[in-house]
Amino acid sequence: MTILPPETRQATPVFFFYALPALPLAAIALPLYIIVPSFYAASFALPLEAIGAVLLAIRLIDAVTDPVFGWLADRVSSPIGRRRGFFLASLPLTALAAFMLFWPPADAGLAHLAIGGVALSIGTTWTILPYTAWGAELSGEYHERVRVSAWREGTTLVGSLLAISLPFAGGLESADGLHGLAWIAVLVVTLLPLTGILAAWRVPEPVDRSVRRLTLRESLSHLTANRPFLRLGAAFLLNSFANAVPASLFIYFVTERLAAPGYEGPLLFAYFLAAILGVPVAVWASSRWGKHRAWSVSMVLACFVFSGAGFLGEGHVGLFATICVVTGLLLGFDLALPPAIQADVIDHDTVRSGEQRSGLYFAAWSFITKLSLALSAGVVFPILGFAGFSTTAGQVQDAVALDTLGVLYAWLPILPKLAAIALMWRFSLDRAEQQRLRGELAR
């Protein structure tokens, strides 16, 4: 088994092979929250309120599974390493659960959505935690951690492009036959095992810097006492919620508020294509100003640009496309920089606790991500329902429903983003502090 010293600088092929599994994992995440709710509502006549409740319940289950799998990811070893072995063992469940949820039978209902959603949530948690911990430990150098994150998140965006192109190309009008969401099911069940095996073959296992082992209770105690993590986690939750609200409402905003059905796919494609271009800009900006300051500036710009969407209405597709491109560029910062800051936060904990617990920290990270997505669905869908918004095809929406949709989509996200900026602008763990921590770990 190849063990990677944490200060070793890696060649580009290592980052390339490490990033490959992010493509099928992205093809799981995006449809689950953007396409699955509207697809199940339209195809199986399920109310949006019930779908939102199911998604929120699944996230509550994650409150238990995330810390357990994070703790196991730091403890379970195998002949090929604790990160690679635990990651490979998860792939069958994740791939099969995605296939089940994205290619439902003709008589599927709320129970199928709930069972498939729970299985997929457990599987992706099991897959992503050792995978992201693996990436956080590939390098101990401040800026190279941004490169690792950028490769993974850039590949995630490529997977997102496929995830928004294939469903609309294959059609979402009916749950019969090989529809667009079923195309995603085939892609995931094929590519996830293949890319996972390639990554385990070509990417080395990081060294474990632990000098002691903590119980789960001790681990959680150290985590909750880690002030930089609490600050970063709060900012990440606020910003993720701000991003999840428009993601949950995107299809309805385009088809109903802009009255532009058929433009959902091209607009999402432009958004994620711009985000791919934004990732190298984020890498450059972080090297110039530091990770937390570059991220904060990007959030300020996003608030300013996205607020314009609230003034758009029927026929304003061109203006909305411009907003999608600019905010897509800024999404590259949201994706590349916070996980790299998280890797530095883990160093802070390792120095104080004596155990390198990247798995547990990314379990908390994963839970925050899922909670933000579920909160968005649990908050905005009931409000839309109370405002009289109808998901019935061909139903004419009244002015109150459309205005509520516009406010939720464009202006609600600004408040949590501003709070996230306030938390991160003077973040204490900068390049100098991270280098000091690495010196303590080396000693």
Automatic annotation (TrEMBL):
<dbReference type="GO" id="GO:0015293">
    <property type="term" value="F:symporter activity"/>
</dbReference>
<feature type="transmembrane region" description="Helical">
    <location>
        <begin position="319"/>
        <end position="341"/>
    </location>
</feature>
<dbReference type="InterPro" id="IPR036259">
    <property type="entry name" value="MFS_trans_sf"/>
</dbReference>
<feature type="transmembrane region" description="Helical">
    <location>
        <begin position="85"/>
        <end position="103"/>
    </location>
</feature>
<feature type="transmembrane region" description="Helical">
    <location>
        <begin position="12"/>
        <end position="34"/>
    </location>
</feature>
<dbReference type="GO" id="GO:0008643">
    <property type="term" value="P:carbohydrate transport"/>
</dbReference>
<comment type="similarity">
    <text>Belongs to the sodium:galactoside symporter (TC 2.A.2) family.</text>
</comment>
<feature type="transmembrane region" description="Helical">
    <location>
        <begin position="294"/>
        <end position="313"/>
    </location>
</feature>
<dbReference type="Pfam" id="PF13347">
    <property type="entry name" value="MFS_2"/>
</dbReference>
<feature type="transmembrane region" description="Helical">
    <location>
        <begin position="181"/>
        <end position="203"/>
    </location>
</feature>
<feature type="transmembrane region" description="Helical">
    <location>
        <begin position="40"/>
        <end position="64"/>
    </location>
</feature>
<feature type="transmembrane region" description="Helical">
    <location>
        <begin position="229"/>
        <end position="255"/>
    </location>
</feature>
<feature type="transmembrane region" description="Helical">
    <location>
        <begin position="362"/>
        <end position="388"/>
    </location>
</feature>
<dbReference type="GO" id="GO:0005886">
    <property type="term" value="C:plasma membrane"/>
</dbReference>
<protein>
    <submittedName>
        <fullName>MFS transporter</fullName>
    </submittedName>
</protein>
<feature type="transmembrane region" description="Helical">
    <location>
        <begin position="109"/>
        <end position="129"/>
    </location>
</feature>
<feature type="transmembrane region" description="Helical">
    <location>
        <begin position="408"/>
        <end position="428"/>
    </location>
</feature>
<keyword id="KW-0812">Transmembrane</keyword>
<feature type="transmembrane region" description="Helical">
    <location>
        <begin position="150"/>
        <end position="169"/>
    </location>
</feature>
<keyword id="KW-1133">Transmembrane helix</keyword>
<keyword id="KW-0472">Membrane</keyword>
<feature type="transmembrane region" description="Helical">
    <location>
        <begin position="267"/>
        <end position="287"/>
    </location>
</feature>
<dbReference type="InterPro" id="IPR039672">
    <property type="entry name" value="MFS_2"/>
</dbReference>
